[in-house]
Amino acid sequence: MVNRDVSLSVLLSAGRSGLHRIGRTQVSAVEQTSEQFAQRLFEAALGTVDILAIHLGDRLGWYSALAAGPADAAELTTRAGGDRRYAQEWLEQQAATGILTVTPDGRFALPAGPAEVLTDTNSLDYLAPLARMLAGAAVQLPALVRAYREGGGVGWSEYGTDVRESQADMNRPWFEHRLAVDLATVPDVHALLSAPGARVADIGSGGGWSSIALARAYPDLRVDGYDIDPPSIAMATANAADLADRVHFHHADVTTDLPESAYDVVFAFECVHDMPYPVEVLSAARRALRPSGVVIVMDEAVDPDFASPASDVDRLMYGFSLLVCLPDGMAHPGSAGTGTVMRAEQLEEYAHKAGFTTLDILPIENFGFWRFYRLTV
Known about the structure:
Elements: H1 4-11, H2 34-60, H3 62-67, H4 73-80, H5 84-96, E1 101-102, E2 108-109, H6 112-119, H7 128-138, H8 141-150, H9 156-183, H10 187-194, E3 199-203, H11 209-217, E4 222-227, H12 230-239, E5 247-251, H13 254-257, E6 263-269, H14 278-287, E7 289-300, H15 312-330, H16 344-353, E8 358-361, E9 370-376
Parallel strand pairs: 3-4, 3-6, 4-5, 6-7
Antiparallel strand pairs: 1-2, 7-9, 8-9
Helix pairs in contact: 2-7, 4-5, 7-9, 9-11
């Protein structure tokens, strides 16, 4: 059963970077006048423009160039490349929307706060990949319309580099700075990872940053990452080049390819909700455990129940679900069709069907968008 004593404090918090739950601030649909809803839609349009413009600046390297100092369009394109006329328009838009400031000599400057959020890949506040994820998903709108109308889905490979890399880049600071620190506060998990000869599996390993963080924190640990996406395996292998003696990535279907009784811990970081066959995956993870081993699932820190209006985090997760996660899962026949908003009771149901007896919510708080679950037999 879900450990309710632990869960309450975790459910009330979603983390840093403006991700704190701030209550259900949205006006309900029945209370909105036409003028209020028109204003809301107008503000959403402004936000959409900002997201897409941030994506341009991120991908062109213009924010990184501005982090080196103020620039006009000519200086910016000299530093980072690009077309001067487009650069002028982008700089003016960024200043008009309040991201950049204008110096007395007419150049454009990137203040320290936005610079950290948009360029510091080591910061827990780094959110440029969020714009990249949404922009990458928007490219697939024709395919999404078709899937919504006819059924089926849009597979992960179809979303391409922007979406693949954005997920890895957004998770990376949290894995590098917080993962091992927070897992060390859970005594049984820390003991398993610290034991001589310990081995772990990281299923749905993506860019590999979770595997890398675990290996660096536990010098004797051997890590096997598994993913069904070949470009992700290539990316992870390159990222972990200095740990190649202890960290290995495998292109595999974990429902059939996980070795039995091989691992002390099986991790699934932000991937179970994407999986078309979560019960089969969790069953394979259970079989892969050594005696006294555990499965740790990190997934979205959504509210325990559906609500209308919902918290800001739930609203964002529904957005990811509509545009990426549900279509990805639905691209496979017979999919469970979970979607991003996988609540604790849904995961508990999957876990019980997979042969686990207990699901606990770990006391790891303020870890970005995410919550940690421990599954035991």
